[in-house]
Write a structure and sequence with these properties.
Helix content of chain A: over 70%
Oligomer: heterodimer
Order of helices and strands of chain A: HHHHHHHHHHHHHHHH
Strand order of the largest sheet of chain B: 1-6-7-9-8
Distance between the termini of chain B: 28 Å
Number of strands of chain A: 0
Structural class of chain B: alpha+beta
Helix content of chain B: 25-40%
Structural class of chain A: mainly alpha
Strand content of chain B: 15-25%
Shape of chain A: globular
Shape of chain B: globular
Number of strands of chain B: 25
């Protein structure tokens, strides 16, 4: 086990190097560069920048250099622990990402907890009471949850909030608190706003998780060991929770590591639609504007977390289920 | 308000020596915002008399003298939207008047030119101060000239407005603390029009910079190692990036400003906030120091739709930018609930959707030849049913017209030219196309070209201001009705411009918004400019390469370039003549097909809080005017 972990950790830097190149290639793939997009943005809002000004900026940002030179510059910065400078914001990427990190995590953890709190009990109940009225009800809700794109849900909820309650739920704070320093009042204001996005983000996950939990548990419930345990007189709840549920968890545990990158990036589309200040919209914006160093920094961290997350999943699974051992 | 436009845009000898009479100053009785009065009492600020220049700028009010206080809530779309701020503060030495007809002194006290327009003298206000209290003098302009404009690292070549005929920069010198002289080797008749836009827009350097502050970041004044160290600490590769960032107001709240409001956060923050500048040089007629409004707050929106939803809910106090014209009916409907009023400021001439032909299209020579045939272009123009476009896309607002100035503008060439080739006449269009030899048709009724291929026009559209794809679809239907197959390609912006540069676009749909300023900025009529629309990328290449590559411009386009050159060296009357001839050529040759114009499409649907006063109901609305900056935002106020 230890050997396996060490091996994987040793591989990490090489994987990241490979990723960094792929990311940079993809960043450069769309036509034009940051300035082409910048000019387009300016022209779309009524202004027209001069060719001279563009040439000056392109030179200043080093965008007139060949691809490989730009990549090597980036790599050199990365190796010295510097995530580089955002072309659009003209501020260090690390600072920009850091600013959004707290809220991104808060939101993601909340929706994660919400998802598991609802999904696991619902899944267990559905499986143990298969084809009951409540099971069918859960099933219908789950299908709707899975089938509705959550940005659509966000828009609908926002419209309802606006049209019927007269409140606009965009952003995470009331205007008065948006740039105020942290205080109890601001935290309270945040709590007032954060539940809706957390719910929207959680719903699709909840639905999917409930279905998986139900299906897994149903497989286990018919196995001979359950029948044996029941025959031995073990009380039903104790039996279910102690054995089949633990096994049914395995597929969930093996994907829990996938949450790690998600925690970091937030939900791109929902966050954009709901105007939430987290890393998702930052990434989307960087991609649209071809702010390649910022997008590159976020994607690289994302890749890193994906690798680590998978590793953590493997470890967690081995801990949960003694039958699983790493083959090396 | 807009009728009195028959005034000089740039007039003769002594242009503006305005408001030098210190009428309001008599008795030293100025008034200030309560917040500032408190600071004065606490000894943190000098009294208002000492903060204002000897002869402050007296700003006329639209309705009445206002009251102090309040926060102006706005929205922006992130750092690339910094021009949102530029428009609100319009921080120039001179600025356009609300109707756009004249240029008035703002930070500067006035300007005068020599008889031959070669020498311009700018007068500054004695006693004017930066927002940190340091004096604003001729040295701040000389610093810009000597250490920024003439520094090869910061500016590889001088911008065209300051260039002599031989490409070098005009001479700029300090006469005394409050007088700066610009000496050109050519007549610079458009000097003030240009100066009115040297306000740091588009991430450029303003033509006046706080020397006392910026010297800290310039190697001519501070040891190079120190500057380099600062650059590195801020993650910049070179000192030039650091300097630009430090000189850019919306990136650096430390940097002193002359505008009515000074940033206290950055445009890269979720809320970009401006607070009143206690040293602002302007007062109203009763001697109240401006601005009336305490703060301007720009809230970040990641998405334009969310911004529009917030506007409908009444979350902004005055905003036109990013409000989509398609929301005009909804906004009107919600006026009462949202406690706002909706104004419509039509565009400053031109047309709000034009189909621009690429006169140097090469990929298909047959099509290229047709595009170069005037009769073909005219036929396509009259084949379009503009009334339908106006009703269904522009909500019935505006009028059918070509891309020429508005009727109230001195450059307007006359009604017949604005309406040239805009009368819908399908029969005539068919007749013309037949006469061009496009008589054979395929099974679908599409005309066949000489090489047997169906005549096909592609319209490249970027959904930039909203409803352009709809316009393209309607045009496509009209063109197919006369037997020209039409493909509408909706493209992502960057790709569209890349294809444009590569000469691969056949036609493109955009707006014609440079008609009020055909001789300055990036007017779309002159292929020497590098604007958004170009009538022929290969013309541009031919001109840039001195005739070695590309395609030589045809006669009418050469004439347009001549007219532009003439206009730059003659007085107002000569400019009017040149402009009118230019627009007659433009409308007659249909290098672009104008559809509908004078709608509030471009930042012209204005949502104004019911309590906000002194916002004009109509005004010149254009980028060079920095609308709403030209409406003198410092005199907006909230009624209690």
């Amino acid at each position: 086990m230890t050997r396996y972990i060490v091996q994987r950790l040793l591989l990490l830097p090489f994987l990241l190097l490979a990723y960094s190149f792929v990311i940079f290639v993809i960043m450069q793939a769309p036509p034009g560069d940051f300035l082409t997009t910048y000019v387009a943005t300016l022209s779309a809002s009524g202004s027209s920048i001069s060719g001279e000004q563009i040439a000056m900026l392109r030179h200043q940002y080093g965008l007139d250099q060949p691809f490989i030179v730009q990549y090597l510059y980036w790599l050199r910065d990365l190796l010295s622990g510097n995530l580089g400078l955002s072309l659009e914001y003209q501020r260090p990427n690390a600072e920009l990402i850091g600013e959004q990190l707290g809220l991104t995590l808060a939101l993601a953890v909340m929706s994660f907890v919400l998802t598991w709190l609802i999904a696991v009990p619902a899944g267990i109940y559905s499986a143990t009471h298969q084809r009951s009225v409540i099971d069918h009800l859960f099933t219908v809700i789950n299908y709707i949850g899975v089938a509705t794109p959550n940005f659509m849900l966000a828009l609908v909820l926002m419209w309802i909030a606006f049209a019927y309650f007269g409140i606009s739920i965009t952003g995470l704070y009331s205007p008065a608190y948006a740039d105020a320093p942290w205080s109890m009042a601001k935290a309270g204001d945040l709590l007032k706003h954060i539940w809706l996005p957390a719910l929207v983000l959680g719903i699709a996950g909840t639905a999917r998780l409930t279905r998986i939990m139900r299906a897994n548990l149903l497989d286990e419930l018919n196995k001979p060991y359950v029948v044996t345990a029941r025959a031995k007189g073990l009380r039903e709840w104790r039996l279910v929770l102690r054995y089949p549920v633990r096994l049914a968890f395995n597929p969930l545990i093996s994907t829990i590591g996938w949450y790690l990158p998600q925690l970091f990036s937030g939900s791109l589309i929902v966050a954009t639609v709901m105007n939430l200040p987290n890393i998702g919209p930052l990434l989307l914006r960087a991609l649209i504007n071809q702010d390649m160093y910022l997008a590159g920094a976020i994607l690289l961290i994302y890749s890193f977390l994906t690798i680590v997350g998978t590793l953590l999943s493997d470890i967690a699974l081995a801990m949960m289920d003694p039958r699983i051992r790493m083959e090396t | 308000m807009l009728h009195g436009f028959a005034v000089r845009l740039v007039a003769g000898l002594i242009l503006v020596l305005a408001q030098l009479t210190p009428g309001v100053a008599q008795g030293g009785k100025y008034h200030e915002a309560p917040g500032l009065a408190e600071q004065v009492k606490a000894g943190k600020l000098p009294p208002v008399e000492q903060r204002l220049p000897e002869a402050p700028l007296v700003v006329p009010v639209v309705e009445k003298v206002g009251e102090y206080g309040g926060v102006w809530r706005r929205a922006f779309l992130g750092p690339a939207d910094a021009n949102n701020y530029v428009r609100v503060v319009y921080d120039g030495l001179f600025r356009f008047t609300p109707d756009g007809a004249e240029i008035e002194p703002k930070i500067a006290a006035g300007a005068k030119s020599s008889d031959d327009y070669k020498v311009w003298t700018i007068l500054l206000r004695k006693g004017a101060r930066w927002s940190d209290g340091a004096p604003f003098t001729a040295d701040d302009i000389v610093f810009w000239y000597k250490d920024v404009l003439s520094n090869k690292d910061l500016m590889p070549s001088p911008p065209s407005w300051i260039r002599n005929a031989d490409g070098t920069a005009a001479k700029v010198e300090k006469i005394d603390d409050y007088t700066v002289r610009f000496t050109y080797d050519r007549p610079a008749t458009l000097f003030l029009t240009e100066v009115a836009n040297q306000d740091g827009a588009d991430g450029s350097y303003a033509m006046f910079l706080p020397a006392h502050y910026l010297k800290k970041f310039h190697p001519a004044y501070t040891a190079k190692e120190d500057v380099d160290r600062m650059a590195q600490a801020a993650s910049f590769k070179t000192w030039t990036e650091l300097f630009l960032s430090k000189a850019t107001l919306y990136q650096n709240p430390e940097r002193p400003t002359m505008a009515a409001w000074a940033p206290i956060s950055r445009v890269s923050d979720p809320v970009f906030t401006l607070r009143r500048n206690p040293y602002y040089i302007g007062v109203d007629k009763e001697g109240n120091q401006l601005p009336y409004i305490d703060e301007v707050r720009f809230t970040y929106f990641a998405d334009q739709q969310a911004l529009n939803l917030a506007a409908i809910a009444g979350d902004f106090d005055m905003q036109a930018r990013h409000i989509q014209m398609t929301n005009y009916p909804v906004l009107k409907e919600q006026e009462k609930n949202g406690k706002y009023r909706v104004l419509a400021w039509p565009t400053f001439g031109g047309a709000d959707a034009v189909i621009n032909f690429n006169m140097t299209y090469k990929a298909d020579p047959e099509i290229g030849k047709l595009i170069n045939t005037k009769d073909f272009r005219v036929a396509l123009s009259i084949a379009i049913n503009r009334d339908e476009i106006k009703e269904s896309v522009f909500l019935g607002l505006g009028e059918a017209r070509q891309g020429v100035p508005a009727p109230w503008h001195p450059y307007f060439p006359g009604k017949e030219w604005a309406a040239k080739h805009t009368e819908f006449n399908r029969a005539e269009a068919n007749k013309t196309l037949d006469a061009l030899g496009l008589t054979k048709r395929d099974a679908q009724g599409i005309r066949l070209m000489a090489n047997g291929k169906p005549a096909t026009i592609e319209i490249s559209v970027v959904p930039a201001f909203g409803a352009w794809p709809d316009v393209a679809q309607l045009v496509a239907r009209d063109w197919e009705a006369v037997g020209i197959k039409t493909v509408v390609q909706i493209r992502e912006r960057a790709l569209h411009f890349k294809l444009n540069d590569a000469n691969e676009l056949m036609t493109s749909l955009w707006n014609e918004d440079t008609t009020a300023f055909p001789f300055t900025g990036n007017a779309k009529f002159d292929p020497r400019n590098v604007p958004i629309l170009t009538l022929g990328p290969l013309y541009t290449r031919w001109l840039q390469s001195g005739g070695k590559e590309g395609v030589e411009p045809i006669e009418p386009i050469k004439r347009i370039m001549q007219l532009v050159d003439t206009a730059r060296t003659v007085g107002h009357d000569g400019q009017v003549q040149a402009a009118q001839e230019l627009f007659r050529i433009w409308a007659d040759n249909v290098f672009e097909i104008g559809t509908v114009g004078l709608t509030p499409m471009v930042q012209g649907v204005v949502v104004v809080n019911s309590k906000l006063h002194n916002v004009p109901t109509t005004t010149g609305n254009d980028w060079p005017l920095r609308t709403p900056g030209n409406t003198r935002t410092e005199q907006y106020f909230f009624a209690k």
